[in-house]
Write a structure and sequence with these properties.
- The N and C termini lie far apart (68 Å).
- The chain folds into two domains: 279 residues, 3-Layer(aba) Sandwich (Aldehyde Dehydrogenase, Chain A, domain 1); 190 residues, Aldehyde Dehydrogenase, Chain A, domain 2, CATH 3.40.309.10.
- The relative contact order is 0.13.
- It has 502 residues and is of the alpha/beta class.
- Strand 12, helix 8 and strand 13 form a beta-alpha-beta unit.
């Protein structure tokens, strides 16, 4: 890594070597709080992506042949290296992405370390099965084997944790990887790859290529050398990946958009529900796929909840992500702020009432800041309720009864996370079965746990991540039919002519 007056300057990591891109040009990453350049990464090309895929394919067989416990030890050593640099990495993450250092950036780095710790344990837990045969002296084995070369496309909102979420299960399963981090937040990915390199990862097992998604990402998805594509991103991006990958019928792990409902029933503890709703909506400045993007409150407690909620949101401290006491930092980019502004303006045009926030804070002359915003008098069919905003904006709606709450919640093309608050165990269980989302949090918020299966329904994705189910998604099953009798027995197939074919 080199540094300059324009921040750190990186290279690509291909075949175990740090190399310049095949073309001139860099992508600058600016601190979203100060707009100062934090660093530059190569503007990679299709040729760079091809070279990375070739390096991964060349290393695949040797890496898969290494016993899984040996692969796991590399993850464990990487965990220790990251742990020793936790504070430094959290600071870089905060400067690059904009989330508050305390507790969000530190929390994400701790989560990243936990991924390496958790999946290192799978070195001895990637298990197949043995099932009985229909016939004597035979058995059926189900082997879990690597898929091959994994192309991992990671997002900007959790640029460390999502890299670990994809690398760790891929590697412990015996796959090699080409990683393309988001161009908006590529720098922390470099530090994770450096940690793997220092931990003794063999050459070519992980490769890192930065550059435009329409060129580098497209090549990784379309090239026949990649066997599995894993992406965390928008639903629109996921659809494009599905279409491009279909030419070679590739395996897919897609974590896509969300529009999580947050339901508050009339018997809920309102103070707890308010605290949870604030976190669930404004965590990471609303730039999280499981953020609650629409809040439904029973009509009997709607006014009381709204009053408490708006007051709590107004009390949130917008500020420098590196300063203690900051609750919310800037959005990741000018484009993200403009999208958020446009969503609020459209809602107000349709008749929404601004109860908190609603504009750029005048105190900040630089940075991509937007006030945490609460909107009332919102209707179910409006864009602000139906389309993902991915910014600090919270529309509130009321409902009459259980059935209406569930109907409103399920009225979405998305199906990732959902939240509900009630003291009634029966209502909670009925809702957990009726609400059509891959995750439901009852009387609590996220984030999801490693031992849980993070999966989206409908247009929120395919497959999932976390737990043994997510780990198994980076493997493929091979069935082996084994006759250990010492004799080729075919009489069960040819009962009237067995002697002729022996």
């Amino acid at each position: 890594m080199a540094t300059s007056q324009k921040g750190r300057v990186e290279k690509l990591f291909i075949g175990g070597k740090w190399v310049p891109g095949s073309a001139d040009g860099y992508i600058e990453r600016r601190n979203p709080a100060t707009e100062a350049v934090v660093g530059r990464v190569p503007r990679g090309t299709r040729e760079d992506a091809k070279a990375a895929l070739e390096a991964a394919a060349e290393s695949q067989d040797a890496w898969a042949a290494l016993p899984a416990p040996a692969r796991a030890k590399i993850l464990a050593r990487t965990r220790d290296i990251l742990e020793a640099r936790k504070d430094e990495l959290a600071r870089l993450l905060s400067q690059e992405q904009g989330k508050p250092l305390h507790p969000e950036a530190i929390g994400e780095i701790e989560g990243t370390i936990e991924h390496f710790d958790y999946f290192a344990g799978y070195g001895r837990r990637m298990e197949g099965t043995v099932v009985p045969s229909d016939y004597p002296d035979r058995t059926v084995l189900m082997l879990r084997l690597p898929v091959g070369v994994v192309a991992a496309l990671t997002p900007w909102n959790f640029p460390a944790a999502m890299v670990a979420r994809k690398l760790c299960p891929s590697l412990v399963a015996g796959n090699t990887v080409v990683l393309k981090p988001s161009s908006a937040t590529p720098l922390i990915a470099y530090e994770i790859v450096r940690a793997l390199e220092k931990a003794g990862l063999p050459r070519g097992v992980v490769n890192l290529v930065t550059g435009p998604g329409e060129e580098v990402g497209d090549e990784l998805v379309r090239n026949p050398l990649s066997n599995l594509i894993t992406i965390t991103g928008s639903t629109e991006a996921g659809k494009k990946v599905m279409e491009a990958a279909s030419a070679h019928v590739k395996r897919l792990v897609l974590e896509l958009g969300g529009k999580a409902p947050f339901i508050v029933f009339d018997d809920a503890d309102l103070d707890q529900a308010v605290r949870a709703a604030v976190f669930a909506r404004f965590w990471n400045a609303g730039q999280t796929c499981i953020n609650s993007e629409r809040t439904y409150v029973h009509e009997d407690v709607y006014e009381a909840f709204t009053r408490k909620y708006a007051q709590a949101v107004k009390a949130l401290r917008l500020g420098d992500p590196l300063a203690e006491g900051t609750d919310i930092g800037p959005l990741v980019s000018p484009d993200q702020r403009e999208k958020t502004e446009a969503a609020v303006q459209e809602a107000v045009h349709q008749g929404a009432k601004v109860l908190a926030g609603g504009s750029r804070p005048p105190a900040f002359k630089k940075g991509y800041y937007y006030e945490p915003t609460v909107l009332g008098d919102v209707e179910q069919g409006w864009d602000i309720v139906q389309d993902e905003v991915f910014g600090p904006v919270s529309p509130l709606l009321s409902f009459r009864d259980f059935d209406e709450a569930i109907r409103y919640a399920n009225d979405s093309r998305y199906g990732l996370a959902s939240y509900l608050f009630t003291r009634d165990a029966g209502v909670a269980m009925r809702a957990a079965h009726a609400i059509k989302f891959g995750e439901t949090y009852i009387n609590q918020t996220g984030p999801e746990l490693l031992q849980g299966y993070h999966t989206g329904w409908r247009e929120s994705g395919l497959g999932g991540e976390g737990s043994r189910y997510g780990a198994e998604g980076y493997t493929q099953i091979k069935t082996v039919y084994w006759n250990y009798s010492g004799d080729l027995q075919v009489d069960y197939l040819f009962p009237y002519g067995a002697e002729k074919v022996r």
